[in-house]
Amino acid sequence: MNAPEMQYAFEIRFNQIDNFNNLRLDSDRIEDYLNLSQEQELQDRYDKFTGSPRRKFEATEKIRRELGNLISSTTIQNASFDSSDGDLHNDAFFVTLPTDYLYALEERCVIQDSDGNTGVAKVIPITYDEYIENVDNPFLEPDDDLAWRLDYGLTGVTGAKKHEVIHSNDVTIQSYSVRYLRRPQDIVLHPTDYQDCELDESLHNNIVSRAVSLAAMSSTDSTSNND
Known about the structure:
Blueprint lengths: L2 H13 L11 H20 L6 H6 L2 H7 L3 E7 L14 E5 L4 E13 L4 E8 L2 H7 L11 E9 L6 E6 L4 E12 L21 H23 L1
Parallel strand pairs: 4-5
Antiparallel strand pairs: 1-7, 2-6, 3-4, 3-7, 5-6
C-alpha cells in the first residue's frame, strides 16, 4: 500500500469500530498512529528471537525480507575520528554514526601495522562489564585482527549515536565501516508531500491494524477521562 491507501484502510477499519462511528481523525493524527505502529512493528521483529542482535535479525528469511529495505552501510575515515575526548579509554576513538542509524549488523576496520601493511579487523560489540573483565587479558584484548566497540550515548549537536572503538596499540585504524539497520522514514500523509512506508509490503496490513488499535485505545482513554 502507498501512503494514501494506508490512510484509507485506516479510516475504513477505524470507522468499523461501533464505539467510534461519529469520531473522525484528521490526517495528522492518523499519521502519528501509523508511524507509532511502524516503529513497534519494526521493534517486534528485531526482538523476536533470542541471542545476539544480529542473529535476531538474521534468524529467518521472512524477517530479512520484511526489514531488508532498511539495511544501509557507511564508512567513516580516520580523519573524522575523535581521539582526543577525555572520556575515551586507552587506544580508542569515537565515531559519530549516521542520524538514521538504529542497530549494527556488521562492523569492521581497515588497519595498518607498524610495517605499513594493511588489513581488515573485525569489530565486536562488548558491554562495559566485559571491557572491565577482559581489558588486561592478553588472550582476549584487541589485537591486529580484532577491535572492540562500546556504545556511547549521543552527540550534542545532531543527536546522532556514537560508538567508541578500542583497538590494539600495535595498529593504526584507517577507517571504520558498519552495515546497519536504519530508522525508517516517517509515513507522511500530506497530499502534496506523501512518503510511503519503507517496510516491506507484507507488513503494511499489520501496521494499519496496529495503528487502528492504538487509535481506539487512545480514544477510549480520552472518552473515559471526559466522563
